[in-house]
Amino acid sequence: MKSSKLVLGIFVLVSALHLIGISIGNENLRIITKPLIILSLMIYYSFVVENENHIYLAALFFCFLGDIFLIFNTELNFILGLVSFLIGHILFIVIVVKLLTKSTGIQKIISLLPFTILFAGLMYLLKDNLGGMLIPVIVYGLTISAFGVVALLNYMTEKSLTNLVLLGGALFFILSDSIIALGKFLQYEKYFPLLIMATYILAQYLICKFMTQKSE
C-alpha cells in the first residue's frame, strides 16, 4: 500500500511539473516529464492491482507512445501520435464493451445522441481546414466518440460511482482531443497546451481509477 501511494505521488508530481513546464515555457521540463506521466500511471496500476488487465496496459502503452510522438510538433509525429492514440482508444472501447450489461434501445439512443452531435459540430467547424487529414481525423473522431458512447451506456445500464468515474475520464479525453483539433486546424490559443494536458492527465487518472476499482 505504501509503495502504491508513493508511485501515485510520483504521478501527481510528474504531472504537476509537466503543467508547470508548459506554463513557464520550459521546454526541457516539458519534454522530460511528458513520457513519465503514463509510465508512472502504469506502474501505479501494476502496484494496486493483483490481476492486471493486459488490454488496459496495452492501451496505456499506446498512449505512452502517442505522448512521445507528440512531444515534437512535426506532421509525421502528429500522424504517428494520432495512430497510437487511435489504437489506445480502440482498446479502451474493447474493455468497456466487455463490461457492458444488457441495455435498452432507448438507452443506446440516449448514449449515442450527444456524442453524434458533438462529432458533427466539430467536423463542421474543421472540415474546410483539414485537407489531406480529413479521413484520419474522421476515423479518430468516430473512435473517440464511440469511447464516449460506450462509457455513457455503461453508466446508464449501471448507475454507480465507479462507472461515473469512467464516464468522466472519457469526457475529459474527448475534451482534450477536441482542443487539440481546434488548435491545429481552426485557431490556436496560447492557453491550449496547458488545457490539453490538464484535461488529458485528469482523463487518464479517472480511467485508471475506474480500472483499479473494477479489479477489487
Describe the structure.
The longest helix is centred in the middle third of the chain and has 26 residues, at 105-130. The protein is mainly alpha-helical. It has one domain (2-214). The protein has helices at residues 2-24, 27-48, 54-69, 75-99, 105-130, 134-157, 161-185, 192-214. Helix 6 (134-157) packs antiparallel against helix 7. It is built from eight helices and no strands.
Condensed summary:
This protein is mostly helical and 216 residues long.
Order of helices and strands: HHHHHHHH
**Percent helix range:** over 70%
The total of helices stands at 8
Total number of strands: 0
State the separation between the terminal residues, measured CA to CA.
14 Å
Rg, rounded, reads: 17 Å
Morphology call: globular
Structural class: mainly alpha
Main pleated-sheet profile: none
* Low-pLDDT regions: none
Return the domain count: 1
Task: Kindly estimate the percentage of residues that lie in beta strands according to DSSP.
Answer: under 5%
Arithmetic mean pLDDT: 94
List keywords for this structure.
single chain; 216 residues; mainly alpha; 8 helices; 85% helix; 0% strand
SSE layout:
Blueprint: H1 2-24, H2 27-48, H3 54-69, H4 75-99, H5 105-130, H6 134-157, H7 161-185, H8 192-214
Helix pairs in contact: 1-2, 1-8, 2-3, 2-8, 3-4, 4-6, 5-6, 5-7, 6-7, 7-8
